[in-house]
Amino acid sequence: QKTGYQNGVEVGYNGYVDPQQPVNYCFQLTNNGEAPLKNLEFRDDDIGISITSENLSFNSETTTANDLLLAVYNADGSVKQYVEKGKLTDDVLKTALADGIAVGERILIHGFKYTIPAADWTTSNGSTYFHNTVYTTGTAHYNNASSEELHGIADYRVQKQTYSFAGDHFYTLGELKDGNNKVDLETPSEI
């Protein structure tokens, strides 16, 4: 699963973002299988992120694991591991990816920043959007000592919020309340 946030608010798939501000992406993976998943990998070429238990490759806006938050949740939803932004080290992140997640567990890595360049926006059918995909890989380890590499994919799309000040402007006369203060408007004011 992949989600995007801007200014601390979840944008939602196909939600609007300010193109001048970075989008903070969150990658999540839940083990809905029948065996533990180890050696997890997340790769999103569109935003320049590739993280594995052996190598962490970040873009210019997310430069180290220290920029990220890591959480691992047990099957019952309780927290198994939590490392807040500013305290996550490269080694702790690599170890979490190597150890992986047991059946029913979920890993969440939040804070991959990316400001979408003008050239990466696509315009189609009246909307301007940026579409990107995260690819996940994990190795399932079964009780019979066999293993299998599993792959997943999650896409995400945001739309470019445009601001236009052309057109009608509305004016009002009256009073404006600012907290506990009233401000009398003697002349028309734009709202």
Commentary on this structure:
It is a single chain. The protein has 191 residues and is mainly β. 5% of the residues lie in helices and 52% in strands. It has one helix at 90-99; strands spanning 2-6, 9-10, 15-17, 23-30, 37-44, 49-51, 56-57, 69-73, 79-83, 106-114, 122-124, 127-141, 147-160, 171-178, 181-190. Strands 3, 5, 6, 7, 11, 12 and 13 form a seven-stranded mixed sheet that branches. It has a six-stranded antiparallel sheet with strand order 2-1-4-10-8-9, with no helix packed on it. The protein is globular, with a radius of gyration of 22 Å. The two termini are 40 Å apart.
Characteristics of this structure?
single chain, 191 residues, mainly beta, seven-stranded mixed beta sheet, six-stranded antiparallel beta sheet, 15 strands
Cα-atom radius of gyration: 22 Å
Mean residue pLDDT? 88
Element-level helix/strand string: EEEEEEEEEHEEEEEE
Low-confidence stretches: 171-191
Secondary structure: helix percent: under 10%
Q: Give the helix/strand class.
A: mainly beta
What composes the largest sheet? 7 strands, mixed
First-last Cα distance: 40 Å
Q: Into which percentage range does the β-strand content fall?
A: over 45%
Number of helices, where a helix is a run of at least 4 consecutive DSSP H or I residues = 1
Bulk shape: globular
Tell me briefly what this model is.
With 191 residues, the protein is mainly β. It has one helix and 15 strands; from the N terminus they run βββββββββαββββββ. 5% of the residues lie in helices and 52% in strands.
